Amino acid sequence: MADYTQLARRTGRIVLQVAAALFLASVAWVLVYRWVAPPATWIMLERRAHPPIGRGYYGIRPEGDRQIRYTFCSLDEVSPNVPLALVAAEDQRFLVHHGFDGGALWQAAKHNWEGGSKLVGGSTISQQVAKNVFLWHGRSYVRKAAEAYFTVLIEVLWNKRRIMEMYMSVAEMGDCMFGVEAASQQYFHKSASKLTQAEAALLAGVLPNPLRFRASNPGPQARAKQQRVVRRMRSLRGSVYVKELMEE
Prior knowledge:
Layout: H1 2-35, H2 42-49, E1 69-70, H3 81-90, H4 102-113, H5 125-134, H6 141-157, H7 160-170, E2 172-174, E3 177-178, H8 180-188, H9 197-205, H10 220-235, H11 239-246
Parallel strand pairs: 1-3
Antiparallel strand pairs: 2-3
């Protein structure tokens, strides 16, 4: 009996030590990215290894030409239209929530429960950053739990400005293409610092389905979303909102 008790205690200590090590490692990882741009993400490595498979995908690069296009940018290096368009398209309560938007999650759950024509999500920009920067592609309860955990960490350890910089720099904008700078060069042949309101709205409008919606040759759905994003940009007080984000 004593041997089993000792074994249980030893196992418990090992489990606690492993958990503490993982916690400290994750905190250190997030803290490093508070000041350092990620050299790559798991999703970039996955795209580099093999092309995505899905119906209706456009612009998929062949096996021998899968070079990742990615340039990290600060908010000072892009047009003010860019963060404004991303907030208007993806998360209009970005500045006021703490990583999770209960209202958006409830509306998404209600829509899906009532049998909407397609499933919708209620993820905030913070949740998408957690997913894009620290996690792998896939759907599982383990991954959702990890996403929630990293969302809490980045909300505690970063400010909103850094979260936005990370989102606009690592979000997938096309096959092997990540961030608004790479997308701006590809689709508009100019720097993201020179994007107009309409161009920024078009790039934001293809999220979160950049492999199906094209900014280079947008169809009716992409154009309709672009117009919705432009209207929301105006309702968000434009430059006033961006100033609040820059001062975070």
